[in-house]
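From the shared-data thread, chain only:
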Amino acid sequence: MKIRILVVEDDDKAYKQIVYYLNIINRERMASRGIEDFHIVRAISVEGAVALLRDSVTLNNSIDLMLLDLALPRRDGEQFTAGKDVGLEVLEFARKQNAVRAVIVLTIWSDSEFMLRSFRGGVHDFVDKKDLDATLEERLMICWESVVHHEANRVFLDRLRTLIPYGEQGVAYLFSKCFSDLTQAVRIHSSQLCDEIRERHGLGADPRTKDPILMHVLALEQASERASGQWHRQMGSLGIIDEKELQEVSLDVLLESVRKDIEYAFIGRSVELVMPKATNLRLNCFPKDVITILREITLGGIVDLDERARQLAGKRVEVNILPHVNQGRIEFICNDNFHTMDQALMEAINQNMFAPPGDRFGRAWGLSIAQHIDARGLSFINVAPTRQGLGTIVTFTITSAFA
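Structure, as tokens:
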């Protein structure tokens, strides 16, 4: 990934020196940590830095690393006249707005009180401006590893926070379907049984009849109608009845949203993620549901990786797209090459059964929930082993994807 670095430095010579040392960082070392390149942005004052940070929050495009010189003028065009504390205002704003993932302070000062205040403000590390050539690369890489670890944990936690409510709805939906089928069958057969009894015993259609058998059947029919009505009213609070309408959205925007959200987890587990390039397709779908399912079919596999598997080189997850525009459907095919799911679990998921979470809330559990996310009958998931038997293929099909 291309990581965004905000350099807050008013001195032109110092800024050029920082950029120079960033550009000569070992490329293999960068690649091993998931870094393709640096996108460097500069601010030269407190107000300029705050404005860039505010924009990054507004655009939901956080700065990955900030290299912050604390000796700054307050406004662009002014000369530095304040003390070394003025830069702490930038640090405070970044911390409160959660606008930066990590901060490295560039400084020539080393007194303990100053360093303590900086750490309390959210600083991750310090680099001596007089020693950039010897320390900047090492400190930046250590800081980046901390960012990846933190963000990967966030991705896995968000996975649980997203899937658990869907799982609760899925269980409720299954129960609702079974209960609805039962009450509908009782109502239909009760009515037919009443008609049959009346005809056989010549009781007519008087609902006030005192025939014991007919009274029991009528009571069963009425109870079924009441139960059906009460359950239908409760379904809304369980999230089963959803008044949302289909939305037309860009597939490229959906895919980019998924990639951007989960890529830290893949970097943290040293797994290559390959997503489709521009498709120029537009889908009719429920975007939140589709994003959740795409996240799970790509991310779920690495949850099950044990420590031994994490050390293997060449781990890869690849997503391909097969649009069938004339048929109105689209397939997302996700392949991995690092383990094959248990056959019994694959069959259970394909049969719309819930898999137990286990101690990791693993892939089978996640896919079984993803299978039930779309209670509207517009999509389904199929799980199968690869032909080589060295991985798992998950196919996510949207059946009414195109207008």
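The chain is about 50% helix and 20% strand.
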